[in-house]
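As a warm-up, study this chain.
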Amino acid sequence: MAETVLERRFRLLGPNVPLFYDEPLHIVKGEGVWLYDKAGKKYLDCYNNVPHVGHCHPVVVDAIARQAATLNTHTRYLHDGILEYGERLTATFDASLSSIIMVCTGSEANDIALRMSEAVTGKRGIIVTDHTYHGNTASVAALSSTNKASTSQSHNIRFVPAPDSYRPASRHDGSDFARHVENAIDELEELGIGFAALLLCPYFANEGFPDLPEKWLDPTIKAVKQAGGLIIADEVQPGFGRIGSHMWGHQYQGFTPDIVTLGKPMANGHPVAAVVTTHEIITAFRTSFRYFNTFGGNPVSAAAANAVLDVIQEENLLKNATDVGAYAKDSLLHLAKKHCVIGSVRGRGLFFGAELVHGKHCKTPAADLTHEVVNLMRQNGVLINKLGIYGNTTKIRPPMPFSRENADNFLSVLDHALSILGHEV
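Now compare it with the structure written out below.
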């Protein structure tokens, strides 16, 4: 049956549509931190941040159903829902970030952020790291140096080396990263393109979430501001309390961006995303570009997003992320004493993982082993994935209600996988 589904998928969707795992999953149901396949087997979901407050959370499901039964239309009519949500969401940011545009995907949000930076600066040069991902539109896809289409136009983009706290090639105070950014700014200006913005995930999630101290980005922020550019913080992965200590990743780093982009977890799976910025920047954008979004912020989307904020607050999920994340990370550190392939353990809140290596002294990336571990854990009912500069960092990013019991389950299966693969010391 699985082969038939794959054949139909290929025929209808075309080749190279991504699937997780060597043996793809056929998921039919989700509940809390669990997913269920067509045969009824359940899997502990340690990866998906889209169902941020848990798969099919009844509060969110009820909010969607009630609003869908009342009204759902495009955004050309007045409606209180988007305004109530916008006021509530922007209250979680610095006071300057008081304006919002709601869209449907993180790709759209980042696309708008790029246009905002052009509207404000009159320039088009963008700086990103060399191991990042910010979405799928033509302009945003060009920002990825690792997954770039052959037709992408990137003459206005400069890539700087992603930080690596495990194999630091530079000082750990952020000054060398700032120097790379300064050099990129100079090059863009000299070529007549001009520098508009630095776009980054403040947690450097796709780069492997390196262990960076607070204020690490300060020298870079200073360089960008001195050059007249904007800071765009992509909070799709670290946002909404994922790191536990703060609602947003940039708050942990101690800076206020000019523009913030949001996506995946915003409405627990309902397609909602947003751009949050200052009144001055949104005014410049609205003056320079004619923009509307048929479904962005429609009544059902706004209701779903608002329900997510309800659950985060009522279930105290930031505290849960802090407590369970610290417990899981400490347990993972303990497991590293048993398995020599665990070279580095890092992360914050419910976004953590381990970098797997062939030898802790030489730190040789073990990407093939990481791939094997991910697939063996999937066979044993626990879903994780991998990322990072070398593709050898396990990515643990479960729904926010993840418990200590769930963490113990994950750690037990990871321990078993590493032992089965013959890497126990």
